[in-house]
Specification:
Blueprint: H1 2-25, E1 29-35, H2 41-54, E2 59-63, H3 70-73, H4 89-96, H5 117-121, E3 123-124, E4 130-133, H6 147-159, E5 166-170, H7 180-185, E6 188-193, H8 197-213, E7 217-225, H9 228-238, E8 247-252, H10 255-260, H11 265-268, H12 273-286
Parallel strand pairs: 1-5, 1-6, 2-4, 2-5, 6-7, 7-8
Antiparallel strand pairs: 3-4
Helix pairs in contact: 2-12, 4-6
The structure holds adenosine-5'-triphosphate and magnesium ion (MG).
Magnesium ion is lined by residues 41-42, 65, 69, 170.
Length: 291
């Protein structure tokens, strides 16, 4: 009976699509976004988070910057006060055994179980992006074994074990303060630079650190490019080091980004030059999806 057959076919088709969709949702990867101050890390992290969410993925956006900008870039109203996990003194003590500033002479738990961190402190945007606002305490050079740092290290280690999610981590400049924990879990890094000598020097340092940590895929995103002349200039400055990146993207300077900041949500609706190039970055990241 042809009518019955075609109905069955339709049901199979729908079931197959649902299966495909759910298997896509079970996949994920972790990417760290780094670069010089003001280069465009937060904007890019937020925009990529929105794009992956729109594609049906589970997204966890992690903010490691003590300035806490990412939630507002994701559309949380600017008047909302957010306290990073590392500033939650009771949680720090509960997990590490010491309160911030009181670690001397106390046995610190360096490997606490923080698997409850997203459930207890995760926030959610209206469009369903999970956020974890970690905050950050020290720079690597000080090598401080303070309780907040023990907690943050444990959180990064825990994040690297979560499955079935796309995790995008916005950072303050450099990646050194994360130590080896990043190497185990984060398989991709986007280093973002403005088309200037100083900004690119930071990008080269970040590249070196990412390679030392063993992050397999490292991309360069040249941001706020106003003209082909500017792009040529930065490529000239970069010289051969450009070949050390797995891919190089060029994101145009885009008035729409500035007009709508800090919230990137309105850019989603616009087919702007910036969003077109970010779509290319998204596709590059998706090539290294983990089961
Ligand atoms: N392609 C672009 N075109 C125009 N403006 C941009 C572009 N990318 C980012 N911006 C603007 O540049 C400013 C800095 O961007 P953003 O906050 O994303 O940088 P950041 O690297 O996270 O800075 P910080 O180091 O302070 O955290 C913001 O006002 C943002 O709107
Ligand atoms: Mg930022």
């Amino acid at each position: 009976m042809p009518e019955k057959d075609s109905r069955r076919e339709r049901i199979f088709k729908v079931a197959e699509e649902l299966r495909k969709k759910s298997s896509v949702r079970d996949k994920g990867f972790r990417v760290v976004i780094t670069g010089k101050g003001g280069a465009g890390k937060t904007t890019l992290t937020a925009f990529l988070s929105k794009l992956f969410k729109r594609d049906g993925f589970n997204v966890l956006a992690v903010d490691e910057d003590p300035q806490v900008n990412l939630p507002y870039a994701l559309g949380i109203p600017p008047e909302t006060k957010i306290i990073p996990v590392s500033r939650n003194i009771d949680y720090v003590e509960e997990k590490t055994g010491a309160r911030p500033g009181e670690a001397w002479g106390v046995m610190l738990s360096l490997n606490p179980d923080v698997s409850d961190v997203v459930d207890r402190f995760g926030l959610r945007t209206d469009d369903g992006i999970n956020m974890l606002i970690m905050g950050s305490v020290i720079q690597a050079a000080t090598g401080c074994l303070c309780p907040e740092n023990a907690l943050l290290d444990a959180i990064v280690r825990y994040i690297s074990l979560r499955k079935g999610e796309i995790i995008l981590m916005d950072t303050q400049a450099g990646v050194e303060h994360f130590g080896r924990a990043l190497a185990k879990g984060f398989s991709q890094a986007i280093i973002i630079t403005e088309p200037s000598f100083n900004s690119f020097q930071v990008a080269v340092n970040s590249l070196q650190l990412s390679r030392e940590l063993g992050i397999p895929h490292v991309y360069l995103a040249i941001n706020k490019v106003r003209s082909s002349k500017e792009e040529e200039k930065i490529k000239r400055i970069a010289g051969k080091s450009l070949n050390s990146f797995d891919k190089v993207f060029s994101l145009p300077y885009d008035e729409i980004v500035l007009e709508t900041e800090p919230d990137v949500t309105p850019i989603l609706e616009k087919n702007s030059p910036y969003s077109k190039e970010v779509l290319r970055i998204k596709e590059a990241l998706k090539k290294h999806m983990e089961e």
